[in-house]
Amino acid sequence: ATIEGIDYFVANYVDTSAKTVIVPNNLSYIERYEYLLGMVSVNGVNITEYRIVIPDGCGLYTSSAAECLSDYFYYNSGISLEIVKDTEAEQEYEILVGDTNRAESKSTSSVTLGADQYILAGTNSKIVMAGSSYMVGGGVSEFINGYAASRGKNVDIDIKDLPSDYTPKTFAFGEAKNALLLIGDGMGFNHVKAALAGGLPEFVAEQLPNAGSSSTYSHSVTTGAAQYTDSAASATALATGKKTLNGYLGMDPAGKELKNVRELAASQGARTAILTTDVITGATPGGFLVHVASRNSDAIIQSQINELLKENGVDFAVGSIGDNLVTEARRQLWTISAEGSRFFSMMEEAYVDKRSHDNNLQAAIEAVTRYNKLIAYVVQFTLCHPDTALIVTADHETGGLTLNKNTGNYVFTSTSHTNADVPVYAIGGGTGVFKDKKVDNTDIAKFIGEIFGDKSIGN
Question: Whole-structure pTM over 0.90, yes or no?
Answer without folding.
Answer: yes
